[in-house]
Amino acid sequence: MPVSLGAADQPIDPLFARGFGLTYGDDAQLPVLSEDPQIPMQFAGHDTLFFAGHVTAPWSIYVDDKTAGVRLTTQQQASPDGTVTVALQTRAVTVSWHGGASGTLRVSGRAIDLRRAAADGEFLSFRYRVIHRPSAAVAVSIDCGHPCHGAVDITSRLASSSGPWQMLRIPLQCFIPKDGSLATVDTPFAITTNGSLTMRITDVRFEQRAASTRKGCLHSD
Fold first, then answer.
1. Which of 158, 124, 160, 106 is nearest to 46 (CA)?
2. Are 150 and 176 in contact (CB under 8 A)?
């Protein structure tokens, strides 16, 4: 905003008066600042990957196709050959797979050890809304470096849902590779399909769940 000057070149209604602040001659001591992050109780103890339109550091969002992968650095991003596109919105991300080849949306970053979380019965959970139902098989996966890979087929859930938001929870135990472990997970969340599909995704996280009598890998509310 431009500064308006009055008589004697004095600023009119300044935010800070001329001369405001410390000088090199002042000796001021700041109090110890609180390190309490004041995280709301409903989020305490949760390991969030993506929430309210923001990916959580040190993670980043990527879109991959058979050509290569590219990091999401703008509001919209397409994979190198256009197989999959992603649009970041206020509280979610909209992903469109256009079919004809394999495409992946993934959250990746520095490797973490999920062996303890899996042993403790934690879940990978995400909230989603299907816009256009899948035309081919869809899998959610956790990757820990080639050839370490664990995947769960979610085609039936996406094919039977359209419109309202839903929550899907998958026990980490379901992702443990047959010939490996979750010791060095660099991609804790990925969705891959060869077909066409459009969906919105939000609130991706690891969470602990109360004891459940439900069996299998797909738990939803």
1. 124
2. yes
- Here the CATH number for the domain that contains residue 123 is 2.60.120.430
Q: Could you tell me the pLDDT band of residue 37, with boundaries at 50, 70 and 90?
A: low
pLDDT at 35: 67
Q: Is residue 2, in this structure, part of any structural domain at all?
A: no
Quick: pLDDT tens for 132-178. Answer: 999 999 999 999 887 789 999 999 999 987 778 999 999 999 999 88
At which residue do the structure tokens 């990978």 appear? 124
Containing structural domain, residue 149: 48-220
Q: Is residue 120 part of a domain?
A: yes
Q: How far is CA 179 from CA 78, 120, 144, 173, 182, in A?
A: 33, 20, 12, 14, 11
Per the listing, tokens 């509310």 go with 221
Q: Is residue 3 part of a domain?
A: no
In total, how many domains does the chain have? Answer: 1
Peptide bond preceding 58 in cis form (omega within 30 of 0): yes
Q: Is it true that the peptide bond before 147 is cis, omega within 30 degrees of 0?
A: yes
Residue owning tokens 């550091």:
57
Does residue 24 fall inside a structural domain? no
Tokens 């809304």 belong to 129
What pLDDT, on the 0 to 100 scale, is given for residue 17? Answer: 76
- Residue 211: pLDDT band (50, 70, 90) is low
Q: What angle is formed at CA 114 by the lines to CA 150 and CA 67, rounded to 5 degrees?
A: 45
